[in-house]
Amino acid sequence: MAGPATGTLVRQSIAAGQKLGQALVRGVQSVSWSGLATGMVASLQPVANTARAVFARIGEYGRALGPLLVGATRLPDDQASFGTGGLWDRVVSNVGRVRPAAIARAFRDPRRGVRYVVAYNNNPAYGIGGTVGVPGIGADDRVLDLFALREIAAPGGGFGVSLAPGDGRLYAVGSAKALDAVRNEILKNRIAIERDLLELEIRVAGKMGADTAAAKQALAEVDVLAAAPESLPQALEKALSGLDAVASANLAGPHHATVLAPLERARAALGRVNAIMNGRMAGTLPGMTATSRLAAPTAPAAASACATSAWPIPVR
Questions:
Q1: CATH number of 172's domain
Q2: Is 160 part of any domain?
């Protein structure tokens, strides 16, 4: 019979849920750490390798970019297009549903004075490359990649895109002034997300006996840098470096060898078992392989020439 909970068991639960917690915090305003550690780790551990990456990617950008789309109005379908050259332009699911291989849609944001273009790959198995066309790009308009926060060239009203299986990107089209405001808003959102996460990680690492002095210094510098628009990129970099400092402190902490390292090895082993089982099941269950005989790997689209940018924003 299992005995009562001890301090060691609590630390083990926290350690096991730590990285999954990072991903979830990026995607929600608040999270119950005890609930995460006790109620979710056991059930999600076998698929943690995949789930954590998906949660982190969606959460990090969902909270930062999602507010921009609130109040935006979808434009007619002809206001954005995704051209793949006509060779692999359809995918067929294993139940016979035919869909475009890649889609682009446009939205208008009257409050910020920009248009958004969403491009996504409908194929869950293969990457795809092509050209996104946006009619009506004026001589003074610019195109901003809202993930990397870099301007990209759009000669002739189009730009190259290369998407991983099932992936998507979000762009903004507008004047340089309007895009600067959008870029700063996204930066502030991302800084707030990473700062909240850094603060949480410092508390948890401190409870586990790790030295958090460097991370606390980074947190203080984030607040100073975030106060000025021109230093927002540096504030984001500082928050991310603070998270790296926490990770290093955890590795050097007293509980890593006895708690974190064995749990990471067990997690990796369970992930491999899960991958093997999924591989054996693929093609035998409905919905497991929703790919088309028409769809095959395509060469990545030629990368668009990126305009010189002073905003080298990290993409994790």
A1: 2.60.40.1180
A2: yes
